Amino acid sequence: MLTYQKAGVDTAVARKFVEAIKEKCPDIGGFSGLYPLGNQFLAASTDGVGTKLKLAFDLNIHNTIGIDLVAMCVNDILTCGAKPLFFLDYFATSKLDLDVSKKVMEGILKGCELANCALIGGETAEMPGFYQEKEYDLSGFAVGIIDKDKVIDGKAVEKNDCLVGIASSGVHSNGFSLIRKILDVKTGSLNTPFQNTTLGKALLTPTTIYTSHVQDLLKKHSIKAMAHITGGGLQENIERVIPNYLSIEYELPSTPAIFQWIQDMGNIGLQEMLSTFNMGIGFVLIVDEQTAEKICQASSDYFLFGKVIKKS
Predict the structure, then answer these.
(1) Which structural domain range is residue 220 located in?
(2) Which residues contact 165 (CB under 8 A, 6 or more apart)?
(3) Among 15, 79, 228, 268, which has the minimal tally of Cβ within 10 Å of its Cβ?
(4) Based on the domain organization, do 222 and 140 belong to the same domain?
(5) 259 by DSSP, 3-state: which?
(6) Residue-wise pLDDT tens for the chain (312 aa)?
(7) Residue 194: its H or E element
(8) CATH number of the domain bearing residue 240
(9) Any idea of the CA torsion for 65, 183, 75, 17, to the nearest 10 degrees?
(10) Do 136 and 78 share a structural domain?
């Protein structure tokens, strides 16, 4: 039975590292950092796309990974209610391939368009001998803005509030070290037919950017908390944004086929799947019952899948 740890990723050590940093910088740990600016806060987040890059290299498809990069940063700052303002990227490689780098930038620009933010700069680094030939690394940095009196911080969440999900487009950008381990062990081919595409292209599907969903909902409803479902899955990411005396209970909608493939091929236990992948839910809103009903009735993009409970 494969696990994320056996694939080389120890999330327990990562949590200990964050806790060590928090001893020196106690305000960190949320999805985004807030910096005061008059009557507003700047909200900032930085991230990468992890070993999903390896699939882009193997498939020689480079024009979508930039969307993932923007999504991983922008979705984080959305959780506090911030409006995305601008984005910067860092592109590092052993030797610059103009065609590949232009395709990567095409994805970043598309991501910024979907996020409704501006690409205002970045850094391109050629580092011979540091990266493998024809490989590169990406990281990004997003900044948004929010009025101080409109920050969504989860403090108002209470027992029996509802969990409203917004679907993911697929795996998004977490868990790829485990996926790649499955492909190695099972000697699977990325060109294997999968539904209406190939396995590789299904795995490489870009991360959904939730700006339009969130900005539209904030104009119409009172939202108590929001969570971007990344590494750690639903439980860990939702519990990051609610008071520590509360927890959640939920029931997943039908599991998307790509996650069923991962679980079956890797012989992965359900709990390991839940703590590693988004399992079809990319973003979560926490609202009262009446608001949940209104949101779900207004659009099929949203669905009720759980509630807040008192921690036992």
Answers:
(1) 162-310
(2) 253, 281, 283, 284, 285, 302, 303, 304, 305
(3) 15
(4) no
(5) helix
(6) 667 676 677 667 767 786 777 677 767 668 999 999 999 999 999 999 999 999 999 999 999 999 999 999 999 999 999 999 999 999 999 999 999 999 999 999 999 999 999 999 999 999 999 999 999 999 999 999 999 999 999 999 999 999 999 999 999 999 999 999 999 887 668 999 999 999 999 999 999 999 999 999 999 999 999 999 999 999 999 999 999 999 999 999 889 999 999 999 999 999 999 999 999 999 999 999 999 999 999 999 999 999 999 998
(7) strand 193-194
(8) 3.90.650.10
(9) -110
(10) yes
| Same domain for 166 and 305 | yes
Q: Cβ distance 211 to 114 under 8 Å? A: yes
> d(Cα 171, Cα 52) in Å, to the nearest integer?
10
Distance of CA 101 to the CA centre of its chain: 23
Q: How many domains does the chain have?
A: 2
Name the pTM for this structure.
Answer: 0.94
Beta bridge partners of 147: 40
In order of 25, 89, 177, 192, 197, the CA distances from 184 in angstroms are 40, 31, 11, 14, 21
State the number of CA atoms in the 13 A half-sphere of 5 facing the CB.
Answer: 8
Structure tokens at 115: 């996020």
